[in-house]
Amino acid sequence: MIRNGKRKIALTAVAGASVLALGLTACGTGGGGDEGGGDSDRPLRVWAGSQTPITANFNPFAPTVLHGALGPIYEPLFFFNKTADEEPTGMIGDSYEYNEDGTVITVKIKEGLKWSDGEPLTAEDVAFTFNFEGNNPEGNGLVSAEATDETTVVLTYDSAQYTTEFQRLGGTWILPQHIWSEVDDFASFANEEPVGSGPYVVDSVTSESYILVANEEFRDADVPAIKKVQYIAVDNNQTAQDLLAAGELDWTGMFIPNPESVTGNGKIEWINTPQDPTVLYTCSNAELGCVGPQTDVAVRQALNVAIDRATIKEKAFVGLTGDISPTYALLPRDEKWVADSANEVSPQEADTASAGSILEAAGYVKGSDGFYAKDGVPVEMTLTSVDGWTDYNDAAKLIAEQAAEAGIKITPSTVQWQEFSDSRQTGQFQLIVGGMIGTSVADPYQIYRDWVGGTAVGSTGPVGAEVPTGRWNFSRYNNPVVDEAITAATSTNDEATKMELYATIQSEIVRDLPYIPLVINATQTFYNAKDFTGWPTEEDLYAFPPSWGSIAAGYVLQHLKPVG
Fold it and tell me: What is the pTM of this model?
């Protein structure tokens, strides 16, 4: 469902909005006021997530990288619009082609490109990037990356790479060789003064905000039309909502259950583009160091059927979310990839009887307190969500209540964003309400490789060690059958063969549930349509619209213009 919100009501008074706006550039002026057009000199004010206080880190490999680095500063070769099944658009790249067996990709880049420091951007930089340590996790398959002239790079792999087209060409940040060749430890490099190819460069950073300004060396002299962008430090949804209502933010992607509270100022409009799965991360693998009842597949299966998703959708997400498939195919876009129709959608109603049967078959016994235990160990788990993420916090409370009805004890709690990030990276958790990064093309391969791929494909590691850069298997799921199918799917351009392999992957993950599916998250984007034009809309959804969208946010900024 895509919902474009244009409902207008009288603005509800926002107590303390002027206090919240402290630290914002030109927060009391510009924006055109109520009578005229916009002020082209004032910044576009953005909230992209709960990173507070702000620490300068523009390293695209860092888990705490600031959002402005990903798209506005660094770019991949091509832009893939995840909201549609269409051909990619050239950014640094101009064209590409595969050889007959799919093992070689020849890329032509645009001529006359420059880095933001004025140095030439050539195919040597592209070849360096693909050879760079941070872009070569185990199982990457790269044999060589060679520049054959200033605008041509040849990428050679040990197997066909048809299925990884987006990851290679649309998800690899191109790096300036003259900067990154001097970096000894890419994982810890803060990169406080980044040199990129995108439309913006860093102007200043404080603990409250950071400002990007137009890159004078950008390939299109007329882009960006918005010369200054200010990213604001806000630590929770409610504060950001208040700032939107007060006219102090221009762009954000966040959940607001009552959109009318911010559209009433006559500036803000909104669009809903559900794309990304919301799930329960489970640290599922005892062999890799996970601890707790959730390491037992029977407990995960029981919890899966104990959840009342219909109630969660209505009460926590006010009906804005989409139905999720346990296969993680995005419906209806990817429905052709669901191998078994029984797995098209996760159960919407709770089935406490089935949950009890699953646990009892696995040797659990319900005690006089109404909760299950096995060998004296109760089925008791902690469930965390990020403080201030009100939709996820509400979902966690509902899940705890629903689980208790099935004899499973769950204690919900909230943590700060940094603690959440650290715990999921290192596996120091039992259950987390969190999001997955949805697929950027109409194919679930990306989720399969990055989120359920095991050690054999370089997507996870033991508890205590961070998940490999660029991968997201926080559950520590490690299934050789899945890894073998992922590896085979990487190399095929035959749809029937891929379908067979996906059927194998789906049957394994639907049974094992390393992530317990909840909903396809409501992705609401709120934007100032009075002072700025060029936003993605339902009629022209040229990019994924939220401000935190990796790659897409930089692409959107290239389309925006001030009014007046």
Answer: 0.75
